[in-house]
Amino acid sequence: AQTVTQSQPEMSVQEAETVTLSCTYDTSESDYYLFWYKQPPSRQMILVIRQEAYKQQNATENRFSVNFQKAAKSFSLKISDSQLGDAAMYFCAYRSNNNNDMRFGAGTRLTVKP
Amino acid sequence: DSGVTQTPKHLITATGQRVTLRCSPRSGDLSVYWYQQSLDQGLQFLIQYYNGEERAKGNILERFSAQQFPDLHSELNLSSLELGDSALYFCASSVGREQGAYTQYFGPGTRLTVL
Hints:
The complex is a heterodimer.
Chain A: E1 3-5, E2 10-14, E3 19-21, E4 24-26, E5 32-39, E6 44-52, E7 60-61, E8 64-69, E9 74-79, E10 88-96, E11 102-104, E12 108-113
Parallel strand pairs in A: 2-12
Antiparallel strand pairs in A: 1-4, 3-9, 5-6, 5-10, 7-8, 8-9, 10-11, 10-12
Chain B: E1 5-7, E2 10-13, E3 19-24, E4 31-38, E5 42-50, E6 53-57, E7 64-68, E8 74-78, E9 87-94, E10 104-106, E11 110-114
Parallel strand pairs in B: 2-11
Antiparallel strand pairs in B: 1-3, 3-8, 4-5, 4-9, 5-6, 7-8, 9-10, 9-11
């Protein structure tokens, strides 16, 4: 079964600095998607960025980028120029293209200090 | 307020019983997702419905079932309840069919306690 591991329960970053959130996953499949979601106190699960496993190029969305290492099964999220509004719970997720099952990591709580 | 409503907020019941949790998605959203969140298991995806049809299935037990009705509200039925089923059950909705491609809006959750 696929598992997603986020080894950092909490992270802290200074406003305007850069922070990297870690995520590793375990799978025997070759066709899948990876996602990073942001969950603010309002409890939306906001899609931040997604990566198709067959694409070698790392996905980028404005200040958010990923470092996708398929062989190492690693999918880290880099947030550049951190803003106060980035403070939230961040979840890494894996979705199988075989059965659409979605697996979430335990989450990383990010604090942004002014 | 995400626009997703869930009832009831709290539910206390005994082992072996059956309960039904209800969810109304945001206006215009066709997908409904059910999740279970417990302290030891984290957030577990259970099942997704899109426009009345089952779209994706996760780690959902055979004792659990769900459906989405023509008005797009959804119900999650939990039967033969066990102590380990105690958890927070979230419903979420999104506009599209492809899971993960869209922001999901979570409801406030139903806290189920099985005694």
